[in-house]
């Protein structure tokens, strides 16, 4: 750009003439004085020109401002501060008046006079505006050059990258552009730059047409929508949707989710959108709330539940459901106030996850205002179905699933329980003993072990087998019959070191899988390989690690679980696909829990203002008949929940679902082989005895058969007389 003086030759001539006349008058004789008009000083003219230029700029007349600052810059005696200011406003006004090429040159001049200007938001904003005015080919050249120039400030390069992304998504390369923005944001050196990126992108999105915004929205997922750049896309999408009052609850839910869970460096962007909308439409009064720990030791579980809930809400709102989803972090110091402040339309609340939190909810009478579906295995006595509902499996559900499988699929009616001597183990063993006796009319032999004394576990297992073996002998003595002739022969007393013959056919083991890897092999060491081992949901966590197992020990082991990844339902398939499409990995029981809760709550519909427990129970009666992703939960007429859990068995690399028929066949095969092994042991013993007596094996067996036939069964009276009922089963609560 060429700058020339605004003083013409004619102007110079006139000035010289005035000066000559003035000198002549001053050198004249006598007291005669020639008075001439007072000329404005050069500094005064420049100041007046600056005021005019600034006035034009401040009024928005950028064309005039650009022209006036151009004239000012041609003044020779401007001070350095004046030059910096003039170049600044000349660049800004030139760009704002639409002269991009001239404006970019002026920005360079501004930077030359003030080197740190390029780091300012004002300079970079002007640069962005200028580049956006250029033809696309020229703009791309400048943007790519700026982005690749590592000597340029990071903020300017970031702006170049963002504009490049805008060009790319307009060309159809949307996914690549968004990925680039993700990477750029991750590389931002501090919060200040991240906030600048957020503001710049949101400004760009405001100018995006509906078709482009729809294309960008197609890349949103329940997981990425709270992170940059997707969070800004969601915000703008919700902002526009809120223009239709019918869409306000869903739009509010999306914005509120960003406000609560989002990770923006500049949260005021969200407030700038939400505040005026809430002032216009008010806060929605229909929705579902979640009370979850999102921080602290249980935060990971809370986020999993929320992930599933978010996917369900996403799917439902896309299918026409219109409700808000509010999330309250129960680890926040204000969680109680937030729950209390929920509008009445938020009737159903999912959570909490901790008993202590539920206790405080109950004490504050918040259960009177909202229907809480807790993610707890149990609720205080008298509250389930009245003050709150359970949306989680109970210990009873686990035990009942095991008992039903053992009795109805395997034909087992005799059980034992070996439990760790601590609260959980004692509680589960006692529950198992009570339910098993109710269901089979047979008592359960129970025994405990010290969980921190693995050296003694082998002895504990042996003692259990000895006691049950003795129980079996006493029962046979009383009943006077033996189902298997092989065992009658064993009980003649002529065989030594034979396997125990316990009365139980299955043993309940309520402990972690880590301990099972030590305890179960002890049964085999003591020659009991027929028992079915019944575990709890605790086993899943240890088996999920995928460690290789000595599977021969666990072929007859089973345990219950909530989530079945092997034979998915239609609902779980949709959840898996949604997670996979979003690159979120595989869902688990907690994700499925959140997913199904939102779907159930939405299907229950809007509760009347005068709802009560009967209202909720009536809605549950129909809503529960949905396609579940987790093990189905049913509620009876009184609101008590039961979950029909899946059954799994350990495998070489984790666990697999149980096929009842195949499992039953395996049990029968193991029993046959066990009997064959016993027969072999007795044959060896008979052969040895015959050799010692110097007779043939056939003769020895004939003599044994004759001796056995001369015996008669012991009557019940004789058994009582000789104290054969002295053995008592150990109750689960005894030590």
From TrEMBL:
KW Chaperone (keyword) present: no
Domain of life: Bacteria
Transmembrane portions of the chain: 7-28
Alphabetic keyword roster: Membrane, Transmembrane, Transmembrane helix
InterPro entries per record: Peripla_BP_I, TPR-like_helical_dom_sf
Keyword Transmembrane part of the UniProt annotation: yes
Protein name: Penicillin-binding protein activator
Native organism: Halodesulfovibrio aestuarii
Lineage, top ranks: Bacteria, Pseudomonadati, Thermodesulfobacteriota, Desulfovibrionia, Desulfovibrionales
């Amino acid at each position: 750009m060429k700058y020339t003086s605004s003083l013409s030759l004619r102007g110079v001539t006139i000035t010289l003439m005035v000066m000559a006349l003035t000198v002549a008058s001053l050198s004249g004789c006598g007291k005669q004085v020639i008075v001439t008009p007072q000329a404005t000083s050069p500094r005064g003219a420049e100041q007046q020109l600056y005021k005019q230029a600034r006035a034009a700029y401040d009024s928005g007349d950028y064309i005039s401002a650009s022209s006036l600052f151009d004239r000012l810059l041609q003044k020779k005696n401007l001070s350095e501060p004046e030059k910096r200011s003039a170049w600044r406003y000349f660049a800004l006004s030139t760009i704002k008046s639409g002269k991009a090429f001239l404006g970019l040159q002026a920005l360079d001049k501004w930077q030359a006079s003030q080197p740190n200007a390029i780091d300012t938001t004002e300079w970079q904003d002007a640069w962005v505006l200028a580049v956006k005015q250029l033809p696309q080919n020229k703009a791309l050249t400048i943007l790519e050059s700026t982005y690749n120039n590592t000597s340029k400030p990071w903020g300017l390069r970031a702006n170049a990258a963002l504009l490049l992304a805008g060009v790319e998504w307009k060309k159809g390369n949307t996914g690549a552009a968004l990925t680039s923005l993700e990477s750029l944001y991750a590389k931002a050196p501090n919060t200040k730059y991240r906030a600048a990126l957020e503001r710049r992108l949101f400004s760009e999105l405001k100018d995006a047409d509906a078709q482009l915004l729809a294309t960008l929205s197609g890349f949103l997922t329940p997981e990425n929508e709270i992170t940059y750049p997707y969070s800004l896309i969601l915000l703008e999408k919700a902002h526009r949707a809120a223009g239709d009052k019918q869409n306000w609850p869903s739009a509010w839910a999306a914005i509120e989710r960003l406000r609560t869970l989002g990770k923006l460096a500049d949260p005021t962007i969200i407030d700038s959108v939400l505040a005026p909308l809430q002032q216009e439409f008010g806060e929605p009064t229909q929705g579902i709330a979640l009370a979850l720990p999102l921080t602290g030791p249980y935060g990971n579980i809370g986020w999993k539940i929320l992930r599933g809930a978010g996917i369900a809400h996403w799917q439902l709102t896309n299918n026409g459901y219109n409700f808000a989803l509010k999330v309250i972090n129960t680890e926040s110091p204000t969680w109680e106030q937030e729950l209390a402040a929920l509008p009445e339309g938020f009737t159903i609340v999912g959570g909490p996850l901790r008993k202590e939190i539920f206790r405080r909810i109950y004490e504050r009478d918040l259960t009177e205002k909202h229907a809480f579906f807790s993610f707890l295995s149990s609720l205080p006595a008298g509250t389930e179905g009245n003050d709150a509902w359970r949306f989680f499996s109970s210990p009873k559900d686990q035990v009942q699933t095991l008992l039903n499988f053992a009795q109805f699929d395997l034909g087992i009616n005799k059980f034992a329980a070996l439990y760790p001597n601590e609260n959980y183990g004692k509680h589960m063993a006692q529950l198992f003993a009570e339910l098993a006796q109710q269901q089979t009319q047979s008592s359960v032999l129970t025994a405990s072990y010290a969980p921190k004394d693995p050296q003694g576990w082998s002895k504990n297992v042996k003692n259990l087998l000895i006691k049950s073996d003795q129980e079996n002998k006493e029962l046979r003595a009383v009943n006077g019959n033996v189902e298997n002739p092989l065992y009658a022969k064993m009980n003649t007393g002529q065989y030594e070191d034979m396997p125990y013959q316990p009365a139980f056919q299955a043993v309940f083991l309520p402990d972690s899988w880590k301990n099972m890897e030590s305890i179960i092999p002890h049964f085999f060491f003591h020659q009991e390989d027929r028992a079915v081992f019944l575990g709890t949901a605790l086993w899943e966590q240890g088996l999920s690690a995928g460690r290789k197992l000595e599977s021969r020990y666990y072929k007859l082991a089973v345990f219950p679980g909530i989530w079945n990844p092997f034979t998915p339902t239609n609902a779980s398939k949709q959840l898996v696909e949604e997670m996979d499409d979003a690159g979120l990995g595989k869902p688990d029981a907690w994700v499925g829990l959140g997913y199904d809760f939102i779907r159930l709550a939405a299907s229950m519909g809007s509760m009347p203002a005068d709802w009560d427990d009967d209202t909720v129970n009536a809605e549950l009666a129909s809503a529960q008949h949905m396609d579940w992703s987790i093990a189905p939960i049913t509620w009876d007429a009184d609101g008590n929940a039961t979950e029909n859990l899946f059954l799994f068995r350990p495998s070489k690399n984790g666990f697999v679902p149980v096929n009842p028929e195949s499992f039953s066949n395996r049990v029968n095969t193991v029993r046959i082989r066990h009997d064959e092994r016993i027969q072999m042991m007795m044959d060896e013993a008979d052969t040895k005895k015959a050799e010692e007596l110097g007779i043939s094996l056939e003769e020895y067996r004939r003599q044994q058969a004759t001796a056995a036939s001369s015996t008669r069964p012991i009557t019940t009276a004789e058994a009582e007389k000789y104290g054969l009922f002295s053995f008592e089963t150990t109750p689960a609560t005894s030590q």
